[in-house]
Amino acid sequence: MSSKFDRVPDRKGTHSYKWDQSARLFNNENVLPLWVADMDFESPPAVKAAIERRAAQGIYGYTVMPDESLAAIANWFERRHNWPLRKEWLSSVTGIVTALSLGVELFSEPGSAVILQSPVYYPFYDVIKMNGRQVAANPLLLRNGRYEMDYAHLEQLMKEGAKLLLLCSPHNPGGRVWEKEELERLGKLCLQYGVTIVSDEIHADMAYPGHKHIPIASVSEELSQITVTCIAPTKTFNLPGIPAAYIATANRDMKRRLDHRIKALSLHMTGFFIPDLITAAYNESEAWLDELMVYLKDNTDYAIAYLRDHLPQVKPMVPESTYLLWVDCNGLGLDVAGLKELMYHKAEVAFNEGSTYGEEGKGFLRVNVACPRSTLEAALIRFVQAAKTLVQQ
Question: For residue 182, which of 226, 215, 149 has the smallest C-alpha distance?
Fold first, then answer.
């Protein structure tokens, strides 16, 4: 049965970060891009209609964020995630990475160690290093095909003086949805050692059946007071080109410091389209998201089965969330350069090469399955045929 998500859009020539850079980034304009994390689907109809109505006004002046839009965010997180988020806790920023960078700048000292759990979304490294801090890597443990936290090593880093943790929840690229017991154990260590948590929860809405995202700030009142949560509608509703993101914290002092720095950097002004699209997304697009998640789960299952049946040398990690498939390609026996050559020139596909996510990501590829099935099929066929030819040589 056909789905609206099966429609193949033509995004070339639209100034697309994903589709219009193949020649520059991969030296091959014929590359099929399944890398950067935006979706090849139209955003929800209600969001599109809200933007069109707003654009039709014809005067694009300075804009304020109304209470109804903030309430839409708060009500969504209470309804979908059982988190009684209050609109007074929210500070507007232009993106999740901006929020992470502010967290590092404000809640750690220059030269100090900041904990991340590798392999992890590569800007985590950037916001630590570019703010003059040191990366304290707490590598995740790969057990039975899924990542788990190494609490003993985590505690050692805290004993050595690290006072800030960047948490990726749900985890990118591994797709883990951290369970309540895992978050409680993590939180207990942070409380014991006086560690602040900055939690990237941009994929909060993308959990698959059998898994439920739990905002770490919702686990206890004590944790809410040491946590800054970074949220956005941009992954959920495919709006990554629109600078809409939010920082939420129940801690009044942390909120005051964030707001002061946001204003100092003049990041506090609201984009012209944002209030209307926020309200349309969170109040009118829930059914669209539920349909999308069914399609993404089917795509994920298809990709895993196809690789299992046609290229058993690679091992996909079954994601519990996100539309990102983390594939262990070490069985192909290729180094970083070899994997790039295989992708960009032999297969003419672009996935994310794993070493950018940290040392533990070497030999892995990250595949974006948020595209029409026909696009995903074409990319997997190209990759598998090229890899088979390489293995047989």
Answer: 149
Tell me the two tokens of residue 305: 């089965």
Closest CA to 210 of 318, 285, 286: 318
- Give the number of C-alpha atoms closer than 13 A to the C-alpha of residue 252, restricted to the C-beta side: 0
Q: Using an 8 Å Cβ cutoff, are 337 and 24 in contact?
A: no
The backbone region for 149, taken as left when phi is positive above 0, alpha when psi lies in -120 to 50, beta otherwise, is: beta
pTM over 0.85: yes
User: Are 327 and 303 a contacting pair, CB within 8 Å?
Assistant: no
Find out whether 140 and 326 touch, Cβ atoms under 8 Å: no
Residue 287 Rama label (left phi>0; alpha psi -120 to 50; beta): alpha
Answer whether 237's CB lies under 8 Å from 281's CB: yes
Contacts of 33 (CB under 8 A, 6+ apart): 18, 19, 22, 349, 350
**For each of the chain's 393 residues, which pLDDT tens digit applies?**
579 999 999 999 999 999 999 999 999 999 999 999 999 999 999 999 999 999 999 999 999 999 999 999 999 999 999 999 999 999 999 999 999 999 999 999 999 999 999 999 999 999 999 999 999 999 999 999 999 999 999 999 999 999 999 999 999 999 999 999 999 999 999 999 999 999 999 999 999 999 999 999 999 999 999 999 999 999 999 999 999 999 999 999 999 999 999 999 999 999 999 999 999 999 999 999 999 999 999 999 999 999 999 999 999 999 999 999 999 999 999 999 999 999 999 999 999 999 999 999 999 999 999 999 999 999 999 999 999 998 776
